[in-house]
Design goal:
Elongation Factor Tu (Ef-tu), domain 3, OB fold (Dihydrolipoamide Acetyltransferase, E2P)
Length: 428
């Protein structure tokens, strides 16, 4: 029994060895693109043979069109409906087309894509960096990483994007529940339009209390009866004191009674002053309650959020019945009426030449069309960017140009973050 097991195990090992040899031979044939060296020599296609041989040795020549080798290349040939005998012809045709394109445009060969196939000049995004694309006014300009374009004929240029002049985050000004949001994303609003309503029940109650207290204070301030009573009391006290003096002169009344009546007269005089002072206090209370009422009205206004300027709602971060705290963003509001185009320019002269200088902003609007807007430089940085002059002796300054938006068929033409090129004509 043991001898039979050993014989079976030996047979399995021999079969595995033969299978491994066969599989390795097939893999080598596939990596060579499905061609043997004898077939390549008989076809006279020395170029394909050199490429396949280089691929097997791991030293593939650098070129614009690379024939995929190995199993992946074989699969792509099968998917494309090509047999091994046709792959060399296809490759030769691609190289010929490449040479023809390069000779006509004079721009050199197209770089290969990540898959090894040459980029097609008719496919967007496959052109060389910096080459002009038909219908584009901006991509034909060389763009350094810092956005500063080279100057020409004394004209300064930079590439930037349109930035909103009025761009704010509308935040909650008091804690509470969002009862209603009266706008949505994309809604055009006018100035002072109510956009958000936060729970104002407590503020309304405080306003009612302040209103009642103000009414009460005004009634007290208008009541001068206490002053009149004090004045009348003083008159009576004076009359009593005068009669007492007459009786005292006739020795009909004692000195003690006379002094008591004198004291009552003095007290009545002081009471007039006290009544007048209390009247002034009541009048001042009117002002205090008016201030309380104004404070309650402010609390109501804080819970009724209005648009500070005309614009469009760019985004909404909260929903109805959300709880918000003071300072928490609810939505974003932007104005499309005007834009600023910010950038950096390089100068060898004084930056004073840029203040109020004439400028032109070029904005692409699609379909190969551009809009040119005239403007002036509205801002020049008071200090040079960086730590001083560059190696070429120039200084960099931050600037911006403000331009109005255009309306076409009642709608604004420009939007935020659109590309633009600015040309500045310094004052000389």
């Amino acid at each position: 029994m043991t001898q039979k097991v050993l014989i079976a195990f030996s047979a399995i090992l021999m079969a595995a060895s033969v299978g491994g040899y066969w599989w390795q031979s097939k893999s080598i044939a596939l990596r060579s693109g499905g061609f043997s060296q004898e077939e390549l020599s008989s076809r006279g296609d020395t170029q394909v043979a050199a490429r396949n041989a280089g691929g097997l040795e791991g030293d593939a020549p650098q070129s614009d069109v690379v024939l995929l080798g190995g199993e992946q290349g074989r699969i792509k040939q099968i998917d494309a409906g090509l047999v091994p005998s046709e792959a060399g012809l296809v490759q030769t045709k691609l190289i010929a087309q490449r040479d023809a394109v390069g000779g006509q445009s004079g721009a050199g060969v197209l770089p290969p894509s990540a898959s090894g196939v040459a980029a097609d000049a008719s496919v967007p995004g496959s052109a060389l960096p910096g080459s002009a694309l038909p219908g584009s006014a901006l991509q034909s300009l060389p763009l350094p990483s810092d956005g500063v374009l080279p100057s020409k004929d004394g004209v300064l240029r930079y590439k930037a994007i349109l930035s909103f002049v009025n761009d704010i985050k509308v935040v909650a000004q008091a804690d509470g529940i969002v009862l209603d949001i009266l706008v949505d994303e994309g809604t055009m609003v006018s100035k002072d339009t109510v956009m958000i309503q936060i729970d104002n029940r407590l503020a309304n109650a405080e306003k009612d209390i302040a209103t009642r207290e103000l009414e009460s204070a005004r009634l007290k301030a208008e009541d001068d009866s206490q002053i009149k009573f004090s004045e009348a009391s003083f008159d009576v006290s004076s009359s009593v004191f005068n009669r007492s003096q007459e009786l005292y002169a006739k020795v009909a009344e004692s000195l003690d009674d006379l002094e008591k009546k004198r004291l009552e007269k003095i007290k009545a005089g002081f009471q007039i002053d006290v009544s007048k002072r209390e009247q002034k206090i009541n009048e001042a209370a009117v002002g205090v309650n008016e201030a309380k009422l104004n404070a309650s009205l402010v609390q109501l206004e804080l819970r009724t959020i209005k648009a500070p300027f005309s614009g469009v709602v760019a985004s909404v971060q909260k929903e109805r019945f959300d709880w918000v705290k003071a300072g928490e963003e609810i939505l974003r509001l932007v104005s499309l009426e005007k834009f600023r185009v910010k950038g950096t320019v390089r100068l060898t002269e004084s930056p004073n030449a840029l203040e109020g200088a004439r400028a032109k902003v070029i904005v692409p609007i699609g379909a190969g069309k551009v809009e040119e807007i005239q403007g002036v430089v509205g801002y020049v940085s008071p200090e040079s960017q960086g730590t001083g002059a560059r190696n070429d002796g120039t200084h960099e300054y931050a600037v911006w140009v403000e331009i109005p938006n255009k309306q076409v068929a009642g709608k604004y033409l420009f939007r935020g973050a659109m590309d633009a090129v600015v040309e500045i004509y310094p004052n000389r």
